[in-house]
Amino acid sequence: MSxxxxxxxxxxxxRPAARTLYARLRHxxxxxGGFVLDAExxxxxxxxxxxxxxxxxxxxxxxxxxxLVSPDSGRITIGGQVLFDSERRVNVAxxxxxxxxxxxxxxxxxxxxxxxxxxxxxxxLERSVRGQRSAAVLEAxxxxxxxxxxxxxxxxxxxxxVALARALVTNPGYLLLxxxxxxxxxxxxxxxxxxxxxxxxxxxxxxLFVTHDREEVYALAERVLVIERGKIGADGRPxxxxxxxxxESIAQLAGFExxxxxxxxxxxxxxxxxxxxLLPPIDNAATALETxxxxxxxxxxxxxxxxxxEGARLRxxxxxxxxxxxxxxxxxxxxxxxxxxxxxxxxxxxxxxxVRTKCGAEGEQTGVGFxxxxxxxxxxxxxxxxxxxxxxxxxxxxLHVLAA
Amino acid sequence: xxxxxxxxxxxxxxxxxLFFVALPIAYWISFARNRWKFLVEAVVALPLVLPPTVxxxxxxxxxxxxxxxxxxxQQLTGHTLAFTFEGLVIGSILYSMPFAxxxxxxSFAAIDRKLLNASATLGASRWRTFVRxxxxxxxxxxxxxxxxxxxxxxxxxxxxxMIGGNIPGLTQTVSIAIYDNVQALEYGAANQQALSLxxxxxxxxxxxxxxxxxVWAVWPFK
Lengths: 404, 222
Fold this sequence. Notes:
The complex is a heterodimer of chains A (404) and B (222). By secondary structure, chain A is an alpha+beta fold.
C-alpha cells in the first residue's frame, strides 16, 4: 500500500518546480491585410501580459502555443520538452501539450453542470484523486455552491471563475488567457485578478495573459510584451514599457491622447529638464511648409532631460488625464508648464468629458491642440464651455519624450 | 408477415442500422477538410432527386447474380439478394441515407468550434470530444435523423417494388399492398391501409417536432 503511494505521486510533484516556455513563431496571415507574425520570446514562470491593439496577432500567438493552429515554421518548448519544431517535424497534438487555455468567450460546455465542466479535464487522473482535486478547485475559486448549476444559470463573473477553475484543475504546465476579463465590471475583475495571482504564487508556471487594456497590464503583469502587427515591439516591466515609451506607436497604444512633434530649445542639466517648442501638427500637404514655419505655434513646454541636443527633433506625449484645467491664471504651483488655451469643443463620454483645447497665439491657424479629460462635475463648477479661455497645467514628468 | 407489421419491422431495422452508418459519414462531412468532400455530399444526397426507379434499377443490377456483390452473396447464402427482405433492407438504407445524414451533419456543423478547441486543450481525444461534447449537443439532430429515416422508409414505394418484387409476407410492404388493392379495385382495403400509414407517419412527425421542442427547452443553449 505504501509502495503504491510512493510510485504514483501526484502529477504536480513530478514536475520540476520552474519550467520556462520558449517560442519562436513564424506564421503568415491571409486575412487582416495579410501580415507575417514573426516573434521570439521566453516566458518565465509568472504572469506575462501580451499587450496590443486588436488585430495585432495576440490570439493567434495563443492558438499557436496551444497547437490549435500550426505555425509555418518555428519551435516551441516547455521546460526542455519540445512541443513543436518545424525542422525536426515535431508537432505535439493539443490534448497532449498539458496546457490550460481560457478562451475569450470562455467556451464552457452548456450541457454540463459546473462540476462536470470542471472535472472534464481530469479524466487522465486516477479516479480517487479526481473528486478531491475538483472539490479543492471549486473551493479555491468560490464556486462550490454552484456545482450543480449549468453555465446558462450563473452570472458572468461566476462563469469566468468556472472557466478558470476548469483550465487549472489539471495542473497545466503553462496557462494561456485570452482577454478573460474584458467583459467584467471592475470589482469582479479585481477579485478574479487576485485569485489568479494567489494561484500563480503556489503554481509557478508561465502564464501568458492577452489584453488590450492598460489597467489590466498594471494590475497583473510582472512583465509585458507589446505586439504590433505580428512583431514584438517592446518587452519589459510595465513601468519601463509604458512610463517612458521610446516608440510612438507604443505610446499611442498605451493611451497617450496627445502626441506632438517638438524641437529642443535649451537644455538645463542642473535642473534635469529641457525646453521644447511644440511644432504644428504635421499634415501631409503642409509637411514642406512646416520645416519653414516650425516655430509658429509659440508653445513651449518643459520636459524631462534626455540625451537630445539643442535643435534636435523629437516627440512629446502626454495623457489627457494628466493635464489639469484652471479657469483663471494659476499661482503657486509646482507644475512647470502653464499654457493658455481656448476650448474648442466639449465631448461627453461615459463618466468623462473630453475637452478639446487649442494653445497658441490668438487667431493663429497653427495652434497646438490638447485633449484634456475632466469629470462632468468639473465642467459644471469651472463653467467650461466652448470658447472659454482656460489654463492647462502639466507637470514636467507627465510629458514623455520619444524619438521623433 | 402481414404488410403492416412487415413495413414497421423494415422501418425499425433500417433506421437502427442507418443511425450507425450515417454517424461517421455525417461526422466526416462536418469536420473533414478534404477537397473531395463535395463528391460524398452529392452522392449521399442523390436519392433525394433520383426517381426511385433509377435507384431501384441499379440496385437490382448490383444485387443480382451477375454482379460481383450478388455472386459473392449467392455463394455465401445460396440465394441472391434481389427479391429478398435483406435486399429490401439494403435498398432502403441507401434510399433513406440523406434523411439520416443531413440532420446529423447540420447539427454537428452548428456546434461552436470553440467548444471543440476547449475540449482539446483539456486533454480530450477526438473520440472523447465526440462522445462527451458533440453527441450530447446534437441530440435534436439525432432524434430528427432517426425519425425521418423511419418515416421515410415507411413510405417508400418505387425502390421496394424494383428490388423486393411484390412477394406477400416477404417483401410486400403497405405502400405496395395499397397499389395492389387499387389495381384490384378493392378500394375499402386500400383505404384502410392508406389511412393507417397516414396516421402512423403523422404521429411520428408530431413526436419529432414535439420532442425536439422539449429537448430545446431542457437545454436552453444558444
